[in-house]
């Protein structure tokens, strides 16, 4: 049986890191995706090779594990339960680490270990030790703050569940298909378990916005879908400075332990900024003047959020260069995602001319950065059975 699944990346408009500590945050999906093609053996008569295969196509890596070996080291593989998401135990983490280590991943690509481990955990928990082949492609930059880890986990969970007993889908449907409400919740829960393997202590905002798409307000594991009443155009600048979300999240937690009162005040301020930002985005726009006023307020809130992210210790010289450059054109920016490098968001007000946009992009790219303007707030996770999309 074959299925293709895809899940979008995201931008965080306000509240990254603070959301891990219970503050409100606002995020939106973007039109960059991780895509999984899955071929799974459904009967023993099929000519399977007794292997679980993972092909990371963009990177040119192919990994495989004999299913007998998986069964030997991972107890979960003997008892898969697709309908009840569960956490990877420390023993299973160790067993999976051994399975990944056997693949001799080059030192320069060691960051992939976390993603491959999440793949093994999600697959074996949902399908046990059935032979299968998964081919992954992605238009998202990895480790840049655009939620590649969540989009990877959501697309895997979507593909694995689509061909499981937990979900019933119309296999004859042509083109992309979304899951029903309860089933999509299951995708989100499994994806969160994968994110935990990659991030350590994720808030759940990234997997939630990748699963459900749109724009969301998120606090303490709960989402509220938002309806934007204004056009929102964001320039995304990738500083191309590599970083790791797990380490940055841990760094903020350590700072919080050292300075609990000060950091809690920072998180409370972020909470207020996110709430104000979401109410501005959702309040009706009567005319051009009110749109310009709203954009001005958003810019101010983005700058305030950036200042607080600096207080958390997650900015970076490359991020500061982007802030300084865009400010020359009177444009406001903030980092998005975990920071420490990665991507920066710049609000492009509706009256800003194409000439100015081109100039800012040219100047940012002359610093070695990469710019893109993504569509915001599209669909979340989807599957396709006809293989022609
Ligand atoms: N397409 C992919 N294939 C394999 N692993 C992936 C893929 N996308 C993401 N990952 C995993 O997620 C990690 C990056 O996640 P993270 O540090 O949270 O940054 P971000 O989520 O902002 O891209 C990668 O190092 C890798 O382990
Ligand atoms: C920093 C954080 O708020 C977002 C991390 O996003 P990303 O992995 O950098 O795309 C962590 C989280 O919410 O789990
Ligand atoms: Mg991530």
Give a written overview of the molecule:
This protein is α+β, with helices and mostly antiparallel strands and 389 residues long. It has two domains: 2-225 and 380-384, Ribosomal Protein S5, domain 2, CATH 3.30.230.10; 228-373, GHMP kinase, C-terminal domain (Alpha-Beta Plaits, 2-Layer Sandwich). Helix content is 42%, strand content 20%. It has eleven helices and twelve strands. Strands 1, 2, 3, 4, 5, 6, 7 and 12 form an eight-stranded mixed sheet that branches. Strands 9-10-8-11 form a four-stranded antiparallel sheet, with helices on both faces. Helix 3 (112-127) crosses helix 5. (3R)-3-hydroxy-3-methyl-5-(phosphonooxy)pentanoic acid binds at residues 16-17, 19-20, 145-147, 149, 199, 202-203, 205-206, 245, 249, 337-338.
Tell me the number of strands: 12
Instruction: Name every ligand kind in the structure.
Output: adenosine-5'-diphosphate, (3R)-3-hydroxy-3-methyl-5-(phosphonooxy)pentanoic acid, magnesium ion
Number of domains: 2
* Biggest β-sheet strands, sense, barrel: 8 strands, mixed
Secondary-structure arrangement, i.e. CATH architecture of the largest domain: 2-Layer Sandwich
Number of helices: 11
Written as H for each helix and E for each strand, in order along the chain, the element string is EEEEHHHEHHHEEEHHHHEEHEE
Q: What are the low-pLDDT stretches, counting only 5+ consecutive residues below 50?
A: none
Q: CA-to-CA gap between the ends? A: 17 Å
CATH topology of the largest domain: Ribosomal Protein S5, domain 2
Report the mean per-residue pLDDT as an integer. 95
**What is the overall shape?**
globular
